[in-house]
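Sample 1 of the test manifest.
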Amino acid sequence: MSILVDAGTRVLVQGITGREGSFHTRQMLAYARAQGESGARIVGGVTPGKGGQSVEGLPVFDDVVTAVAETGANTSIIYVPARFAADAILEAAEAGIALIVAISEGIPVWDMLPVLRYLEGSPSRLVGPNCPGVITPGVVKVGIMPGHIHLPGPVGVVSRSGTLTYEVVWALTQAGLGQSTCVGIGGDPVSGTSFVDVLRLFQEDADTAAIAMIGEIGGRAEEDAAAYIADHVHKPVAAFVAGRTAPPGRRMGHAGAIVDGGVGDAETKIAALREAGVLVADSPDEIAILLAERLGTAHV
Amino acid sequence: MRLHEYQSKALLAAHGISVPDGEVVATGAEAAAVARRLGGRVAVKAQALMGGRGKAGGIVLADTPEEAEAHAARLLAEGLAGAPVHRVLVERAADIYAELYLGLVLDRRARRMVLMACPDGGIDIEEVARRHPERILRLPVDPAIGLRGYHLARVADHLGLSRRGDVPRGDPPVGERPVGDPPVAPTDDALVAIARGLYACARANDATLAEINPLVVTAEGSPVGATGRSPLLALDAKMVIDDSALYRHPDLAAGRDPQSESDVEREARLAGLSYVKLDGRVGCMVNGAGLAMATMDVLKLHGGEPANFLDVGGGAREERVAQALRLILSDPAVAAILVNIFGGITRCDEVARGVVSALRREARLLKEATPVPVVIRLVGTNEDEGRRILEEAGLATAATLAEGARLAVAAASKRPLAGGGR
């Protein structure tokens, strides 16, 4: 078991002929093949105007509806440039794709607002944008994360960040703590899937025994997560919140990482998480230590 | 990107929102000329991207052109609260009957723009939100339907504006009591036009925040029908434009205040690197924004202070590393550099070769500069090989982020402070 992606996942790559899209298609294929029979499948790609071509042996289609009809894709990953990405998400949702993972960075907020509105009440779930994607180690990688740093196991990982997530995952793997699924929810001010959404899935997932959460400054997502954890999550949660040293009013790389009008500072988030019983780490790799202590050796 | 008041007002005016007559100027003499043209009392307003501008003395009234000139010249020469002021806005002073607040703000949790209205204008809205949340009406705008008449009727009602054009029905505003005669124009019609204009303006310009504070009910109260002038006036305005959308607003991007960022920050932005100057002495070069913040935090945990935030981007390619190094070293306070790279899909040995070659290149370019100790922490695939390459090149390496932070802090503390008699 896992969340969001599993052996039944059939992945379509939107923007497959682009530089990023083709590079990461190779990486995702390699990961899928390395898992052998247990792996999910990358089934094709879409680039408008390039239907009929192939990339890495995968068929390329002009549009998502055709691609779904031909390949049975149920998941899509989006690498298209930011200015076309909102349409790509909507096209995937209209075609009935169940899980849409948007890697694209820099989609304007006013482009995302109607997209997120459209997705409310829709059967499609959007992860991202501006995220590293989702991986269920040993099964399928739908993202840009380095696959080999992961290890199958009991820790669910959810994060607003990219390389910081890899850092935590690597520390977990080195401590012998594998991961059930790792979800990058993205660093934008508005996105399709929240911490709370993923925490709910991890709480319900039988194969997840503990949760690692990586937050950062900006917004109130960590505070919302803390409130949810206090009431609904009965598994151990360890967290790191990046940006204690970030000055207010300055955007720290991610569009959503800004302390604005007294909202979104790290200390408030950390206090809320501690209050909810979350183990808060002072450095990213300490998450692995905290969870190893809590889980004992049973899962190692 | 934050816009100055005068820029925000120009955008609002283009969407039919009344703003005071005025002009932005860069010298005292120009300020006097504008004051003379406007006649009567004017407000001289420092164009500075800071909160609490009024309290800091950045807004002054002048009764004569000479006074306007003196105030403008002083603000331009002295700046405001330590920040330089390069422009002042000279406007006809408004005859204020009541001050309101109207804003459109992104609510990240609701994934909506939210129209906020408060009858207590002219003061810090965040303060009102904390102390008297019931005074603020929040209307999340569904992008499928936008703002409708029934929304705006609620807003007008909350603000105490009425069709009868008589005294606002709400509680008297916090602060000064209303003065002068009440407006005679149908203020709720004016409000509907302003709220619609505000929404259209924010959408057209990709604003994630567009605030009119205060929105004043003028005591002149000229009936709309009679003069075409609204009894409501945007006395101050603030807008934040979504950086991700600047590509479709080249005019706004070009109007970026050069003083709103340092030369180094501008250079970084043009190079596509994310860099924020900080006050510490340990320069940081990290791939990924989250990891870059975490690196700063761990430095602090080990007694250091970061000199900057810098995301060198994925893969840490040689060209980018070289550019990042130049940016970091342009800060004279930097006494040591901590490089923290997670080698993901790019292997650590490739990253290490890139870093070594960039450092060699920059060392040649920066002959006259004092060499600064560099500590590198590489983690991920082929990290042993990567570390070997770095060590062969004579660079200090660290196995963990904590060790890297300790080494960098120690190296920085051994070096004299910049300007300390070197």
